[in-house]
Amino acid sequence: MKYSKYLAVLVLFIVAAALPNYLGLYQLQIMNFVFVYIAFALSWDMLLRSGQLSFGIAGFAGIGGYTSVLCGYNFALSPILCILIGSAVAGIVALFVGSQVLKLRGLYFSIVTLAIGEIFRVIVRNLEVTGAAEGILLPNAIFMGNATKTYWLMFAIATFTIIISILFQKTRIYYALTSISNDEIVAASSGVNIFKYLVIIFVVTSAIQGMAGAAYWQIYASVTPEGAFNLGFALLPITMALFGGVGTTWGPVIGSAILSVTAEYLKLQFPHGHLLVYGFIMVAAILWFPSGIMGVFKQFTAKFNT
Amino acid sequence: MLEVKKLNVFYGKLQILWDLSMQVGNESVGIFGPNGAGKTTLIHAILGLVKPATGEIILEGESLLAMETDHIIKQGISIVPQDRELFPFMTVAENLRTGNAYIPRARKKYKERLEYVLTMFPILKERLDQPAGSMSGGQQRMVAIGRALMADPKVLILDEPSGGLQPSIVTEVFHRLKEIKNDVSILVTEQNVRQCLKAIDRGYILENGRIAMADTAANLAGNDHIRKSYLGI
Hints:
Chain A contains 14 helices and two strands; from the N terminus they run αααααβααααβααααα. Chain A has 306 residues and is mostly helical. A two-stranded antiparallel sheet of chain A has the order 1-2. Chain B has a six-stranded mixed sheet with strand order 6-7-8-3-9-10, with helices on both faces. A four-stranded antiparallel sheet of chain B has the order 2-1-4-5, covered by helices on one side. At the A-B interface, helix 7 and helix 8 of A face helix 2 and helix 3 of B.
């Protein structure tokens, strides 16, 4: 049983690695969505494990996207380097915001994260250097638009996020974050520096979101204020994580995979109503299986074992 | 070891502790008093969860007043909280680790500390991989005490360790405290005065936020006021 889990993960990775040989351009594009949403949903969930509800995904993805495209546009740096810089800038913004707001936590924190995207959207919309309302167009997409290579890039970012999530669940940080979300007094009484750990996890998850956003907009070779800071980037990954099951590594991964593909299908079927259907899925998930697919799966295996 | 000097603590305008002074040396000390006397407030003040208006709290010559809670814990004070004590879905081993993982001084001695805790509470040895929430109340209390001991404390604070436990377990817990006191200074608040007095060296009676009496455990047990008010004799 212990090894079958590792075997399943190995098979999954081999299948994912082999996919570009069998998929067409459109399917590969959908896979890119799957991977970018895995990075968003899983990083969001990692922060949630500390009890902090963030709506900042759109903000940090947008910051990462804008930074990386600006780097490419102004300094003609290599796209990969631009993505890393985008990730770092998102992390630095998170460090600044987190060190100011994480003393308050809870609702105050959530509201501020919601505001980050809006603030930056207004800023880039009004600055000439960021291309104002029109945004910026890069001369070339990353890897000259090579679908297989972009697939590999997004696959690498999703895998990186999964590895970070697993690492965090096996180290001291896990106990610290879990105890903070359980009871801050008990956490502090165990010697946990609550503020420090919250800032660390906020910076790490924001940097991941910045990285995924940066890669995403490098693929499109352009950014616009409304596109990059679209609130959908904050809400869709949350739906996916809830659908898959929060508090686990594989829940948000499974949720992102299923819902990204479903979303594409819905877009084809109901071009103007797909978000409505999405809303129904979110409500249904919260009502009938609040612990998500992973929760249902765990209940099932527990029953099966007894 | 731990010294509290002329402590005044307020919640808003309401004064909870009045000029409270007490010490814990290499011994076990009990704090008794009715509900609302200020026992938990005193513990919270020592842990830095409440900031006193005036007074001083000193551990081995160093003032704890300006420190954050996690820093105070790292200085060598451990707490077994009253009710919310364990992470129920984590295993016993993981719970014990949380007591140790954030204190660099103790982390280096992880194996040594674990061995100490498991010799103190042998029953935990067989249950290391069991979720803490699936254990009985008495065993959970032992895990909670074990977790606090994992931090290699200089002073172990227990807030009502007998609360909610069946009498036989209470006896067991106090029996263990008697052994632990040989290695660590103990500060314990307790409603179960009769049992506790048998396990400790000295005691303070706290009434309305003031120290009403301070004496050895034997003298307190023989005192008429204590016998009437706390022991029901």
